[in-house]
Design brief:
5 helices, Rossmann fold
Length: about 140
C-alpha cells in the first residue's frame, strides 16, 4: 500500500526542556495543509509521554523537534521506549537544530529527515509519505 498525505497520522513531540516552538507550529500547520492528521503533544514532554500518545493515537510517525542540539539523546530515548512497547513500526523523523556530526548516528538509529530550519515543506511532506509507504511495503518479519 502506498501512503498518501491524507492517510498519514503524525504525532509531533517536543521532548525535554526546549522552549522553542515556532518551527514545530509551522511544521504542524504545513503537514495539516498537506492533508495529514497532526497531533501535537505540546512542549516539555518525556519520551514515555510521546510514545504513549503515539500509540494511543495510532500514529504512523513521530516527528521530533529540538533546538538545543541534543536530538541524539532525545531520539535514543524515544526509540528505546518504542522498543520497550513493541511499537517499532512507528516511524521516527526529526528536525530542528541538529549538528551535522549527529546526522549519521541518527540515520543509523533509524531516525530520518533530520531537517534544519528553512527546509521546504514539500520536502518534509514527501519524506514522511515515503517513510510510511516504505513501512507499509516492508515484509512482515518474525
Amino acid at each position: 500500500m502506498v501512503a498518501s498525505a491524507a492517510t498519514v497520522r503524525v504525532l509531533i513531540g517536543k521532548v525535554g526542556f526546549d522552549p522553542h516552538d515556532r518551527g514545530i507550529l509551522v511544521l504542524a500547520q504545513g503537514l495539516r495543509n498537506a492533508g495529514m492528521e497532526v497531533i501535537f503533544t505540546g512542549k516539555f514532554q518525556t519520551a514515555e509521554e510521546v510514545v504513549a500518545a503515539a500509540m494511543q493515537e495510532s500514529a504512523d510517525v513521530i516527528a521530533l523537534s529540538d533546538h538545543c542540539g541534543v536530538m541524539r539523546l532525545i531520539a535514543r530515548d524515544v526509540l528505546a521506549e518504542l522498543e520497550r512497547h513493541g511499537a517499532t513500526e512507528i516511524c521516527v523523523v526529526a528536525g530542528g537544530i541538529i549538528p551535522e556530526e549527529d546526522k549519521p548516528a541518527l540515520e543509523a538509529m533509524g531516525v530520518t529527515g533530520n531537517y534544519g530550519m528553512g527546509t521546504p515543506m514539500e520536502k518534509i511532506v514527501g519524506h514522511i509519505v515515503e517513510r510510511v509507504s516504505r513501512r507499509a511495503r516492508a515484509p512482515e518479519t518474525g
